């Protein structure tokens, strides 16, 4: 019995909307003697359906999913399965998303441009109960902890809520309000309400300015 437990592998579940990324992580992680992939998904809903049977120790989450932003998945998993550790692996700018991900329940953030060794280090760091972020984000978090308030960056987009940021991104990608409602499983009225809140927070006059601002932001951040 003891030898069986000693040989047990850590179970990892990958959530990424790109099949090539999921396959690549499966090969990378599967090559490690103490790690194994217990499942994968391309959407938040599919991932949540598999959680109870896959029983992962670690969830690797991309922020760009078929049915919304990975931040919502992180928050939901934290509420339903508090013992599962989570690591974000994303191409999105960590300056804007890393703190949000940690606040929602993730324990680490890795940019997809990092090398395989960094990803494996991040996985083992998070599994050991520690946080994994870049030195830049670590300093930002330290400043926040010491000062009590976050230093203003000058970009009002950072003041949007997670849901508002998600809708702002979709607007910038050219997604219609009706399509946003379907993708996020919310009502068109709720989408309109969020659009108005975003417009006021960004001090924009009308829907056209909101669209232009969102599209420029998406291009600048390569989302």
Describe the model.
The chain is α/β, with parallel strands linked by helices and about 220 residues long. It has two domains: about 1-145, Response regulator (Rossmann fold), CATH 3.40.50; about 155-220, Arc Repressor Mutant, subunit A. It has eleven helices and seven strands. A five-stranded parallel sheet has the order 2-1-3-6-7, sandwiched between helices. A two-stranded antiparallel ribbon has the order 4-5. Helix 8 (about 160-170) packs across helix 10 (about 190-200). It is globular and about 60 Å long.
How far apart are the termini?
49 Å
Count of helical regions: 11
Second rung of CATH, namely the architecture of the largest domain: 3-Layer(aba) Sandwich
Fourth-tier CATH superfamily name of the largest domain: Response regulator
Cα-atom radius of gyration: 18 Å
Following the backbone from N to C, one meets helices and strands in this order, namely HEHEHEEEHEHEHHHHHH
Q: Summed up, what is this model?
A:
With 223 residues, the chain is of the alpha/beta class. It has helices at residues 2-6, 19-30, 44-54, 70-80, 94-104, 116-127, 135-147, 162-172, 177-184, 188-201, 207-220; strands at residues 10-15, 35-41, 58-61, 64-65, 68-69, 85-90, 108-111.
List the topology elements.
Layout: H1 2-6, E1 10-15, H2 19-30, E2 35-41, H3 44-54, E3 58-61, E4 64-65, E5 68-69, H4 70-80, E6 85-90, H5 94-104, E7 108-111, H6 116-127, H7 135-147, H8 162-172, H9 177-184, H10 188-201, H11 207-220
Parallel strand pairs: 1-2, 1-3, 3-6, 6-7
Antiparallel strand pairs: 4-5
Helix pairs in contact: 8-10, 8-11, 9-10
